[in-house]
Amino acid sequence: xxxxxxxxxxxxxxxxxxxxxxxxxxxxxxxxxxxxxxxxxxxxxxxxxxxxxxxxxxxxxxxxxxxxxxxxxxxxxxxxxxxxxxxxxxxxxxxxxxxxxxxxxxxxxxxxxxxxxxxxxxxxxxxxxxxxxxxxxxxxxxxxxxxxxxxxxxxxxxxxxxxxxxxxxxxxxxxxxxxxxxxxxxxxxxxxxxxxxxxxxxxxxxxxxxxxxxxxxxxxxxxxxxxxxxxxxxxxxxxxxxxxxxxxxxxxxxxxxxxxxxxxxxxxxxxxxxxxxxxxxxxxxxxxxxxxxxxxxxxxxxxxxxxxxxxxxxxxxxxxxxxxx
Length: 325
Description:
By secondary structure, the protein is α+β, with helices and mostly antiparallel strands. The protein has nine helices and 13 strands. It is 31% helix and 24% strand. The radius of gyration is 24 Å and the shape is globular. The relative contact order is 0.12.
């Protein structure tokens, strides 16, 4: 029997390497850079040597140093909530976030009270779940939609809107969106639930950073129902692009999208998480109790002296509604 023939490309020598992409917490990156500077190595070499040492130890010692992620026990998982976000903290420091939203009576069906096409509905509902996820520095990996309508034609249009919004944050819609529809019973009214699943390390979680005397600053305006579409055209509501920019600003402490509970409710929630109270300013032109529908506004806490910088980042309406006591 003749020996099989191989080309040079079929054989990988042990010294050959391939690039990989890994997301690391900022603290770990700082530590890596510190070692690199101290020992005059580049960042890649520090990571390569650290992995080589760690994997060698695993092979030799096994279960003695095996990471807890390999032996996860349910009692080691802790849960906490903030508004429409549930956080599942794993013993490794990784946090799984679930952000969820729903709508009913809004869509293209005959008995929907607010008429809107499926594409627009899918776009806005996806935006809500993604904004809740990204506001805490969790990065979305999966979207799940549960529809009380048929796939064709209503579900297809809703899915098209979801895909459009997911692309804005770098998600691959083909891989990251799952959907279930109602195919057994015909429906005359639209119902939709959307859940976003994200991941964040506890060192990167943006929650509980609010400081005493922080200003409560609103980006966008609360809009609901038929107001939303026109307000978007006029540039009066916050969107994903605004939120992503806000997460990149060091002077922003906490972020929370405002939804059906209104501004006052969300402000008190932020303050409560750090054991503080809030003071709202008088003579505001914005109704603090008004629902903000599909997260048409974002509430932030920050040093009031930095407000001017905020105006450079977004052209959306900015309102200082109060402060943290």
